[in-house]
Amino acid sequence: MADVKLHPDWLARIGGEFDQPYMGALKQFLADQRAKGKRVYPRPRDWFAALDATPPQDVRVVILGQDPYHGPGQAHGLCFSVQPGVRVPPSLVNIYKEMQSDLGIPPARHGYLKHWAEQGVLLLNNCLTVEAGQAASHQGKGWERFTDAAVAAVAADPAPKVFILWGSHAQRKAANVPGLGPGTPHLILRAPHPSPLSASNGFFGSRPFSQANAFLAEHGRGTIDWRLPETAEVAAG
């Protein structure tokens, strides 16, 4: 990972992971994939975009995704988010529907979520890369251990946070984090995944956005402005 730089505050907490053998194996795997001409999403400079956009001391909410989008031009390192100009994916459409029901915020016309990340919403995927057109193709290669370390570092900080766990995959990942067990100072919100396959089984009506803000306000941590800028170009700055 020598060609990728990580935010220094994250390096201070989880930088030791880069010295572990699994990270060397992961780096070699990614190099081999690219040498074979396979397209890997997102581009290397965006692999750690979620961590760069939300330094650990700024995290107030954690949303866990599974893999980057594997379609052309979609993924840019933030879970559920797509680059400006890309059609809003179905799961994010449902997230917007729930946000409108919960907070009365009309759905954004784009899917670029960096506005959330800049306010302390860590939008972290379980795996940080994927092969084009091949969902879950980089699972089991080492990313899970790295992102486990990032989640554990956030959970170990006693400042109250909200962990929004959509779907069994995110819930299983969080279940292995000691700081999210009994007695945690954090709020854990669980619901089905917003995918069209499962959103009607309890995601709709779960009200995660208002619950997150109520908890943050109660603990003196402000609130998240979930309303996105009108255009993705404004959001991208």
TrEMBL record:
The keyword DNA repair belongs to this UniProt entry's keyword annotation: yes
Keyword Hydrolase annotated: yes
Main location per the UniProt record: cytoplasm
InterPro entries for this protein: UDG_fam1 (IPR002043), Ura-DNA_Glyclase_AS (IPR018085), Uracil-DNA_glycosylase-like (IPR005122), Uracil-DNA_glycosylase-like_sf (IPR036895)
Keyword terms of this UniProt record: Cytoplasm, DNA damage, DNA repair, Glycosidase, Hydrolase
Record-level GO cellular component terms: cytoplasm
Subcellular location: Cytoplasm
Parts forming coiled coils: none
Single GO molecular function: uracil DNA N-glycosylase activity
Reaction catalysis annotation: Hydrolyzes single-stranded DNA or mismatched double-stranded DNA and polynucleotides, releasing free uracil
Active site (record annotation): D67 (proton acceptor)
E.C. no: 3.2.2.27
Highest taxon, organism lineage: Bacteria
SUPFAM superfamilies from the UniProt entry: Uracil-DNA glycosylase-like
Segments forming domain Uracil-DNA glycosylase-like: 52-216
UniProt GO BP: base-excision repair, AP site formation via deaminated base removal
The protein's role, per its UniProt record: Excises uracil residues from the DNA which can arise as a result of misincorporation of dUMP residues by DNA polymerase or due to deamination of cytosine.
Similarity comment text for this entry: Belongs to the uracil-DNA glycosylase (UDG) superfamily. UNG family.
Protein name (Swiss-Prot/TrEMBL): Uracil-DNA glycosylase
Source species of the chain: Sphingopyxis granuli
Gene name tied to this protein: ung
